[in-house]
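[job 4471] stage=fold_predict status=RUNNING
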Amino acid sequence: MAAHVVIGCADQSLAYELRAQLAEASDVEIVGVGETTSELTDLVLTRDPALVLVHDTLGPDQVHQVIRDLSIRRPASVVVVLTSETDPAALADAMDAGARGVLAYPLSFTDVQQRVQNALEWSRHMQGFVQSVADGATNRGRALVVAFSGTKGGVGTTTFTTHLAWDVRRELPSLKVLVIDLDLEKGDVTSFIEARYRTSVADLAKVSDDLSLRTVADAVFVHESGMHLLLPPGDVRETEFVTPSAIRQIVALVRQQYDLVLVDVGARVTPVQAAVVEIADEVVAVATPDLLSLRALRRNVTAWESLQVRRPEHVSVLLNRSSRADEVQPDVARRLSPSPLLDVIVPEMGKKLEASANSRSPELVTDVGWWRAVRGLGRAVGVGGLLVEPGAPPGESQQRTRGRRAAAADDGSVSVEFLGVLPALLLVCVVMWQLGWAGMTAVWTGYAAQQAARSVALHEADWQVRDAARDVFPSGMRSGVSVRFDAGRPDLVEVEARVPLVAPGVSDLPWSVTIQREVVRES
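[job 4471] inference complete, writing structure tokens
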């Protein structure tokens, strides 16, 4: 398959000459020519080419800045600069901007073919690397960046951003977590996490072309919980320094320093917000179950799609404050949403979060359902893999450990108590069992007396009378059975049987059962 090439050149004759040179290469296909920097950007973002050839006189935007932005947004698209300046300073500027090669004109066929082949080889290498990262085949070696956007103000975007960060830090203190508040005019992160800071994201944006680990560390506020915060400027006039290119540079650098970066991008679509939405690994749009929020969701997603920064299917929608009393239920919201709805549906919490917000302390939220929802959100966007026990509320792993220890102690005390009452339980069982045998002995004795009386009435021998009575009992009890009938009382038979202990024939008790029956003789 031929590699796609995009040309950015306003000089018609130069563009024609370049197309003719590329036509000699059988493995490339020119898919577009942009005569302005904006046309070039649209072509690159739309066609995702392997090679971009840019004339250094292209305008109206500065070419080197456009190259820098494209290298961040499309790392697999290799840029080669066409220039008439061959001095070392011009070449260094092009390479610093992110170009992988420079073509000087007048064009040489050999030079064009060599530069194109080298660029395509690099592009294939980068495409393989990007794909392996997307497939999880290699270790990313960088932070997971999740952007949280609200459909409108007050839907809970900042709450989820700060509480998810706090939850991760609570469970895994060794992870480095950064929260960036890019709702530059109405940022509320400091309303949920107390922070007194002097430097902001605007200070980093001012030096975005010369960023270093030191400058980032100086601009970040470290909260007592261990979270790092990069906050908006206090002076609204400084927000103009936070440009899309600056924020791309900042995010690219903090990716290398942190394990997790959560960005609150606000509810309004701006160039800065769109830049973060494009480069983020995951984008979560927080909505509430009402038509106003869902309409705003559709507007935002449509805007991102038209700006070619994020497709609707690559946006996850979190439904917050859902209640059975709502007219718009989750099933309806799922049908109305332009992007897939997360399986995590956050119920209406009422005033359960009020104390936490008032005190700017997430740990004051004690509702287990809330933290399970936060943990479910983390799992849905890929943060769950960082946690020890996905699905558990903050500290639940510690709580479970303490609970297991307490349960073990309780089990020990129960075992001791059970050993104390075991003799009594055994005695009760023996007594109940013995009473059962006594009752059965009485039944057998009565039936034996009846059989003996019948045998006497038939004038059978004495031994036959005794055998008739004893045959009624089990073999183990027959030795304890006595039958009495004498001439003094010829009309009465008495049978006496001893009650056995637990099982017939094992042992005997000192009491017995005696029953008499009258002999009815036939005339």
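[job 4471] summary: The radius of gyration is 44 Å.
[job 4471] exit 0
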